[in-house]
Amino acid sequence: MAAVEEQEQVRFWDRVGMYVTRDFAEQWIERIGATGQVLDGDLEEFTQVSTPDTNLIRKEIDDLFTNDQNQGELSPENVAIVASLNFESKRKTFILETKERLVADGMESDEALIEAKEEYTKAKDLIVREALGLPEPEEEE
Q1: Which of 42, 49, 68, 139 falls between 20 and 30 A from 92, CA-CA?
Q2: What does the alpha-carbon distance between residue 115 and residue 17 come to, in Å, rounded to a whole number?
């Protein structure tokens, strides 16, 4: 039972700047174990990517979940990601409610569904634009 409770605990992990479960942290270790190369545009060549020592990170995770619950502040980028994911998780509800409103206003059902999907895309685009500080797109004539 204690193992299940430990798996469900959440801690703020400074390394990634967000709250994580132990499962997520363990999966993160597996992902960073990959090696590769990136293109260095200044040198016009590929250079080896260095990865943190997985044993050090595993100890960091153990310490994180052994100690008392901690708190941290999400970065603005992570707040924006969470907001976007939250909005996307409600896609079906948004579309169906918008369609219902459009049909109630006299639009045909098929046309209302298309319009509702377009409204969803516009709303999602707005969330992303605001998070990235991008200007409004220019209107096409």
Answers
A1: 139
A2: 38
Instruction: Flag whether the pTM goes above 0.85.
Output: no
Half-sphere CA count of 118, side-chain side, radius 13 A: 7
- Alpha carbons 89 and 116: distance in angstroms, whole number: 16
**Sequence-distant (≥ 6) Cβ neighbours of residue 107 within 8 angstroms:** 115
User: By CB neighbour count within 10 A (0-12 exposed, 13-18 middle, 19+ buried), where does 2 fall?
Assistant: exposed
Q: Which of 38-47, 72-81, 85-94 has the highest mean pLDDT?
A: 85-94
Question: Of 4, 25, 8, whose CA–CA distance to 16 is shortest?
Answer: 25
For the chain, domain boundaries? 2-66, 76-132
Do 112 and 103 contact (CB within 8 A), yes or no? Answer: yes
Instruction: Give the tens place of pLDDT for each residue, 32-70.
Output: 765 667 777 887 888 877 777 788 888 989 998 998 877
